[in-house]
Design brief:
Elements lengths: L16 E4 L2 H10 L7 E9 L2 E4 L5 E2 L9 E2 L20 H9 L11 E6 H8 L8 E8 L2 E5 L9 H13 E2 L16 E11 L2 E9 L1 E2 L11 H4 L4 E8 L4 H14 L4 E7 L4 E2 L4 E4 L11 H18 L5 E11 L4 E7 L10 H8 L1
Parallel strand pairs: 6-8, 6-11, 13-14
Antiparallel strand pairs: 1-18, 2-3, 2-10, 4-9, 5-15, 7-8, 7-17, 10-11, 12-13, 14-16, 17-18
Helix pairs in contact: 1-7, 3-6
InterPro entries: RAI1, RAI1-like_fam
GO cellular component, one term: cytosol
Family: Belongs to the DXO/Dom3Z family.
C-alpha cells in the first residue's frame, strides 16, 4: 500500500495535535484505494443490559403494508424501560470475550495489527472528513494490539432512540410466518448484536454492532452456524425527521451498513410529531454513494490513516491501563489528544480481560 503523507502539525504551542486534515489529505485518502474486505460474522449475541450470550433467535423483516400507516413512533414511550448508562461501551465486551473464549480457534494474523472496538467508534472515525459533531475516542495499546472505545454517555435515553426501537418493532417478526408484535413493552437495554471481523489494509478489525434481522421467507435452522449466518441477507430499518439533511444521514447509514455487510435499508421519514405518514423507502446500500458528494474511498482511507498515526504515536505503550483520548473536531478537521498514564478514570478495559491477558 502506498505510504501516505499527512499534514501533521508539529506545533510548539499545541504539541498534542495528531492530525490536521486538509484538501490535499482528502485527495491522498481517495487515491490510496484502501482495501476493506467483506466483513465476516463471528457471532450473533443477545444483549440484556450489560450481559450478553449467544442468541437463540433472530428477527425477520416484514414488508410494511398500506394498513400500517400512519405509524406513530411514540406508541409505548411512556411504558418503555429507559437506557441504563454503562461505565464503558458495552459493545467492547463482545470482541474481548471472543478473543478470550475463542483464542484457540480465532486465527490472529501474524503481520496485521488487531483492533478491538465497536461499530460505533469505526463509524465516528469514517465520517470524520464529512462530519459535523465533535466526539472522542479512547485508545489503549497492549501486545501490539489496539483497543478503542467511545463515550458511554452517547447511550442517552431520548425519544429519537425510542423511535428507532419502535420502528424496528413494527417491521420485524419472530418468524417469517408471523406478524410483528407491536403491543409489547420496549426495553431499550435489550438488543441483538453481531460480532464482525474484517481486514482494512494492514489492520484486522474485530468489532460489534447492533443488528435487527434478515430478509427471508424461511426459518433459519441454526443461527449458531456462522457459515449459514454469513449467507443471510441482513437488513436495517432507519428513521429520520422530514427536515433532516439526507447527505449526512445517509453517510452514516452507508457506513454502518458497509461495516455490517448489509445492502438493504428501509428508511422512514417522520413529521414533527414523530408520525410516519409516507411509505417507507427501500434503498440499496450499494447505490447510496451515487446520490451524494461524499466519497467512500475517503472514509476508508482516513480510517486507515488514523489507525496508522495512532499506532505510530503509541508504539512505546504496552499497557491496558494507559489511555490516549483523541478529540475529533470535524468542523476544523483537527484531531488532538491527551495522555492518561496508568490506571485513571479513563481506563476502560475491564478487569476480567486484563487478568486474562496478563496471566
Amino acid at each position: 500500500m502506498k505510504k501516505l503523507h499527512y499534514s501533521v502539525m508539529e506545533n510548539l504551542e499545541k504539541p498534542n495535535v495528531l492530525m490536521q486534515v486538509n484538501g490535499h489529505n482528502l485527495l491522498e485518502f481517495k487515491k490510496s484505494k484502501t482495501i476493506f474486505e467483506t466483513p465476516k460474522i463471528e457471532g450473533l449475541y443477545s444483549y440484556i443490559y450489560e450481559s450478553f450470550e449467544p442468541s437463540k433467535h433472530i428477527k425477520y423483516f416484514k414488508e410494511p403494508q398500506p394498513s400500517l400507516y400512519p405509524i406513530d413512533l411514540n406508541v409505548g414511550l411512556e411504558k418503555a424501560c429507559p437506557v441504563i448508562n454503562s461505565r464503558i461501551a458495552t459493545r467492547l465486551h463482545m470482541p474481548l470475550n471472543f478473543a478470550m473464549k475463542d483464542s484457540t480457534t480465532y486465527q490472529r494474523p501474524t503481520t496485521a495489527t488487531t483492533v478491538y472496538t465497536s461499530r460505533r467508534v469505526l463509524t465516528l472515525l469514517m465520517e470524520f472528513c464529512y462530519g459535523k459533531y465533535n466526539s472522542h475516542v479512547l485508545v489503549s495499546r497492549h501486545n501490539g494490539n489496539l483497543y478503542m472505545a467511545g463515550d458511554p454517555a452517547a447511550d442517552m435515553d431520548t425519544p429519537q432512540q425510542f423511535h428507532h426501537k419502535r420502528l424496528e418493532q413494527c417491521l420485524f417478526a419472530d418468524s417469517p410466518d408471523e406478524l410483528p408484535k407491536m403491543d409489547q413493552p420496549i426495553d431499550m437495554n435489550i438488543a441483538l448484536s453481531c460480532l464482525h471481523h474484517a481486514y482494512l489494509g494492514k489492520f484486522s478489525l474485530l468489532y460489534a454492532g447492533e443488528v435487527q434481522g434478515i430478509i427471508s421467507d424461511k426459518m433459519l435452522e441454526n443461527i449458531n452456524d456462522m457459515d449459514l449466518l454469513n449467507q443471510c441477507r441482513f437488513v436495517f430499518s432507519k428513521q429520520m425527521w422530514e427536515w433532516s439533511k439526507k447527505e449526512y444521514k445517509f453517510l452514516r447509514y452507508w457506513i454502518q451498513s458497509r461495516l455490517s455487510n448489509v445492502d438493504d435499508i428501509y428508511v422512514a421519514c417522520k413529521d414533527k410529531e414523530g408520525i410516519v405518514k409516507k411509505p417507507i423507502e427501500h434503498c440499496k446500500v450499494s447505490d447510496i454513494p451515487k446520490n451524494y458528494p461524499w466519497e467512500p474511498e475517503v472514509c476508508f482511507g482516513f480510517l486507515h490513516a488514523f489507525l496508522e498515526k495512532v499506532e505510530n504515536l503509541m508504539h512505546g505503550v504496552n499497557s491496558l491501563e494507559t489511555v490516549y483520548e483523541f478529540q475529533l473536531n470535524p468542523p476544523t478537521k483537527k484531531i488532538t489528544y491527551e495522555i492518561y498514564n496508568g490506571r485513571t478514570d479513563k481506563t476502560f478495559i475491564p478487569k476480567y480481560y486484563a487478568d486474562f491477558v496478563n496471566n
